[in-house]
Every structure is written in structure tokens, then in C-alpha cells.
Amino acid sequence: MACRETGVRISGSCTGKKRDASHDDPVLSKADNLQRRKTSPMTALYVFIALALGAIISMQPAINAQMAVRLGGPLAAATCSIVISLLMIVVAWMALGRIPMGWSKLLSLPWWVLIGGAAGALFVLGGIMAAPRLGVAAFFTCVVLGQVLGAAILDQSGAFGLEAQPIGWTRVLGILLVAAGAALTQAQRLL
pTM for this one? Predict the structure, then answer.
């Protein structure tokens, strides 16, 4: 049972404080929680983080391609890159002083949640092979187009437990603009 006065229940007890807008409130509908997240003061910080990560990740295929040259192939470079990622996560766990998940729950997860890890490995390997041939900007423009198309399908269908969000004309226009950008990054090759 949630606390109707404040809408907050933490560890079984009601509190007098409202939850931070960046956290979902169990009493509110999904739409209300979505609106709260959109208007959160933290949204600007998260946008900055996403932009910074985008800039950092743009270096990954080029660096990994050089690693592939030095290690003798894309699989060796992809393996090395993913092992380094794993080591960074282990260091983060050690810094926290605990492992923040129950490994016993791993076998009870639906099979499709493992797609995230597989997608990461495929991205690293695909980036090593495609970015040097397409160029980093063209590679990422195509990646973004693929992400936007995939995200639109997920939004429309409500797959993986997401709330279905119909695709309106503004989203279609946005997708077409991204597609135009992807085509323009390849224009020199096509002409």
C-alpha cells in the first residue's frame, strides 16, 4: 500500500518528503512519471552526460581498429576491449565495497535481457570492422539511424515492458532527417 498523502513509500514506511523527480513514484501513472522525468532539473545534467559519452564513444571504433591492426584481427581487439570494460566494472564494484546484484537471480531472467550484452559485443566488433572503411562520422550517423529506427519500433510496440508511445508525424520527420544525414555522410562514396 502506498502513502496517499505524500505518494512515497520507502522501505515500508511513509515519509513526509516528495521523491526526487528523477525517480519514478509508484503512486503516479507511467505517463505522469514520464512527464516528471522530462521536466526534472537533472534532465540537463543527463543530456550533458549523454553528449559527453557520445563524444567519448565516437573514439572507440577508431581506437579499437588500431588495436585490431596491432593484435592481429577484429576478434582479438573486440575481446580486449570487452575485457577492459569488465575490469572497469569490477573496479567500480570494489570501490562500492559490494556487488550490487544478486547473482542467484541471473538464471531466472528472461532470455531476451541478455540481448543487451550481446549487442554491446556486436557493436564493438562491428565498429572495428566498419568504422575504418566508412569513416567514423558516417559509421556513427548510420548507427544513430539504426538506433532511431529501432527505438521507434520499440516505442510503437511497447516491447520489453516499455509503455507504448505512438509514432506521430514529428517523430517520422525526425527519422527522415536522420536518414537524410546518414545519406549525406555517404554522398561522396555514392557520387
Answer: 0.67
